[in-house]
């Protein structure tokens, strides 16, 4: 795997995390540090029928601290529990515009005990920003994080 060193660092950070909130914050910081091309990295937790913003790195997403299940790309992932890669958000009617500069988005579900716990959401300022290796890394991180939430 191309990003094995980053994955190992995240595993170490998770092992040393005492609380779920710490684990989430450390994952977000590590992803943002290793991938500066990601303009925003955050975690949403499913609470009832809403995705509620947790730790994030980047600008504050005013107006989208809570996203209803089924609304937008994040809300769609909450229903399907499948990774969504949007290469060009301007071409996807589901995209909820948090930041004018966002051009592409990656949303990866965090699944615990076969149920959606939350999501890792990443925005980038260029279209087609996410490589297959980056997507696979974030999917592995989501699986690891599911063990620590």
Task: Summarize the structure in words.
The chain is of the alpha+beta class and 149 residues long. The chain has one domain (4-146): GAF domain (Beta-Lactamase), CATH 3.30.450.40. The chain has helices at 4-15, 20-34, 72-80, 132-146, and strands at 38-47, 50-57, 66-68, 84-86, 104-112, 115-124. It has a six-stranded antiparallel beta sheet with strand order 3-2-1-6-5-4, with helices on both faces. A hairpin with an 8-residue loop joins β2 (50-57) and β3. α1 (4-15) packs antiparallel against α2 (20-34) and α1 runs parallel beside α4 (132-146). The relative contact order is 0.20.
Write the layout of secondary structure elements.
Layout lengths: L3 H12 L4 H15 L3 E10 L2 E8 L8 E3 L3 H9 L3 E3 L17 E9 L2 E10 L7 H15 L3
Antiparallel strand pairs: 1-2, 1-6, 2-3, 4-5, 5-6
Helix pairs in contact: 1-2, 1-4
Protein name: GAF domain-containing protein
Please tag this protein with its features.
149 residues; alpha+beta; Beta-Lactamase; six-stranded antiparallel beta sheet; 4 helices; 6 strands; GAF domain-containing protein
């Amino acid at each position: 795997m191309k990003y094995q060193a980053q994955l190992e660092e995240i595993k170490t950070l998770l092992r040393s995390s005492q609380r779920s909130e710490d684990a989430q914050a450390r994952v977000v910081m590590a992803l943002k540090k290793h991938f500066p091309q990601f303009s925003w990295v955050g975690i949403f937790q499913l609470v009832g029928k809403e995705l509620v913003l947790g730790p994030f790195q980047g600008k504050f997403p005013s107006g989208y601290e809570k996203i209803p299940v089924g609304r937008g790309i994040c809300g769609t992932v909450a229903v399907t529990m499948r990774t969504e890669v949007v290469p060009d958000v301007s071409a996807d009617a589901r995209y909820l515009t948090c930041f004018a500069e966002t051009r592409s988005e990656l949303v990866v579900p965090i699944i615990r005990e076969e149920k959606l716990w939350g999501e890792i959401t990443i925005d980038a300022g260029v279209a087609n920003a996410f490589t297959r290796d980056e997507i696979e890394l974030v999917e592995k991180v989501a699986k690891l994080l599911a063990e620590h939430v």
